[in-house]
Amino acid sequence: MTHEIVLMWTAVTCYALSAMLFSIAFVFRKQALFRWALIMGLLGLLPHAIAIGVRWDRVGHPPALGFYEVVSSYAFISVSAFGLLAWRRRTMAPLGVVLMPISFLLLGAAMFTSRADLELTSTLASWWLNIHVAFAKLSYGAFVVSFALALVYLYRERAKGALADVLAKLPAQEIIDDLEFRFAGVGFVFLGVMIVAGAIWADQAWGRYWAWDPIETWSLISWVVYALYLHTRLTLGWRGRKSALLAISALLVVLFAFIGVPLVYQSIHGAYLLGY
Fold it and tell me: What is the pTM of this model?
């Protein structure tokens, strides 16, 4: 347990330094710092991955139970997705000004919650649980990146002076807009797989595919909201500002489904998510 916590705090430190370097590079127009900020963020992935692996081996299940495990894994997926994007498109590195502070705050918040080992009962243990959890993390990670791209798009529209010069290093607005759409689309597909896998898992564990549990319901609502986003994009031709505003609103629905619902409603899912 001690080794895991040390590794996690090392990751928190790396993400904090990365967020700080990104902020300095952005405000003071230090282009060279963007590279070092990205490297620092990627370095944080190593202790983070090892800590997740150590805990997984000890408790015998993926990071699926309790706020600490779940939020920590979402931070890991978000940084990984951003790192892959920025590594393939170096001009996307300034996106870290948005993503790294979010990831740092997520992991930092997780570290101040209960880190007690939670047991996965034999009733709940299933291969479908692994699929459900994996696609949940991939979908939310994609949504966070889409959200960050939407924020950058909107801010860039109004940026003036020195900040406009920094943002000018990013790809054209059309590319930012397209990437926002692509990440939202991937997240939508992954969220759909998550819901289906969760239904199959629920049938094995509780003898029913769907019971309109609050988190089940809000997960479906989140999926419908992103379906609406894709519909407005592909059918109505929404682009740019309208699309970005909808992408931001859609993530707020997802955040409520993930954090707000377990706090407001008593449910089976909430008990495993928050560990109460």
Answer: 0.83
